[in-house]
Model the fold of this input.
Amino acid sequence: MTSMDQERWSRVKGRLKAEVGDDIFSSWFARMDLESVERDTARLSVPTRFLKSWIQSHYSDRVLSCWQAEEESVRRIELTVRTAVLRPNPAKTKQEDSPDASRDLRPLKTQGGEQRTMIAPVSAAHEALGGSPLDPRLTFDSFLIGRSNTLTHAAAKQVAVARRGDVVMFNPLYIHAGVGLGKTHLLHAITWAGNAGGERKVLYLTAEKFMYGFVSALKTQTALAFKEALRGIDVLVIDDLQFLTGKNLQAEFCHTLNALIDAGRQVVIAADRPPTDLESLDDRVRSRLAGGLVVEMGPLGEELRLEILKSRISAARGHHAGFDVPEPVISFIAKSVTHNGRDLEGALNRLLAHSKLTGQPVTLEMAEREVRDLIRPQEPRRVKIEDIQRVVARQYNVSRGDLLSSRRTANVVRPRQVAMYLAKTLTLRSLPEIGRRFGGRDHTTVLHAVRKIEGLVGNDNALADEIEVLKRQLQE
Done:
């Protein structure tokens, strides 16, 4: 490498710094070195794989254009992760020969192959941001639709097929459901389909990965660049939001959420409960989440469980040709294993293992024996505070707004106290949370209402009967 090459590289770095600013340059380009310039290729190196992936994913065109401004003959950039001692000719090192050691910094869709065109941008963005791994099996094609998830599937598909510049219909899209009902499947499907066209950047992160990425950026003093990159995503997909903890992290998430929504970018979030039940989150975050489209995925109906079983059996036969499950066994599992989709897969895995390891055919007797611990008693319906308020308001001929208001008339005070009492006895919500959900009242007000009704129930048989009727309505 000549001194002239080094001079050109200094000018290229100067152009980069002028374009991206001092902070971004210090975060991503300060440790980038020039190794050589040969024919139409400039070979650069950085000390970590993280830097390599990030620059490839987010600054490829800019690096190349800055080089071409200084040297028109440069048509290609190669970036490597340098080791402690670099060999004289990086183009021929063993590291360079490995498939992931270097990559052209031009857009990935020019690298060939339809599959790579779809998958590479997702993988690169995830590697660079510390994104969560994506399962290629979890696509819209493999998602089975039933009454419990029709609306959620339609909303997810709408997000996935939208194009850059389209008006965002609902933002954020908030999906909540219990374990094993398909939330994560839909989030992966959105990410795969959204990235397939190469027009938008769709990033999937679990709450844990979001927290890890932000903490890592703070430690490496790249927090500004990390936040800038997140806000440059076209569709941000966050899974398991209920695990987001820590005031600072929640504040950063809130800022990112607001910045994306205000800029017209799409945000998709999944959790195991509705936004109003995420007590650990700041009120502002809950309010912003509830302001989008909130959809619930209900329990899997028997017909849908049957479809899921048949689909999984068909997939298993692709690897185990002799695997056969008689119709009565499929019907038994669909009727008996009702909790979630993961239990259904667990039941099939047991049948497959038993059949393969013992060489015996799958029978109804064997199935009953193998899956008996997966047959769980029907869980009581989870009561929500909104349901309590609605049922109590109807029973006492007042409005839900009356229950949340500051009115102190007798025809409102007693129903309000009954509703607070039921919220305390039928849900796991804390006194402060119940107070907040009843018009922002203090927890001492809730405690007074609970004690008041408890005292009255012991002496007023009519009130006790009313409350029992309300409980039955709520738990049916």
Notes: The CA atoms of residues 141 and 457 lie 55 Å apart. The radius of gyration is 29 Å. DSSP finds 22 helices and eight strands in the chain.
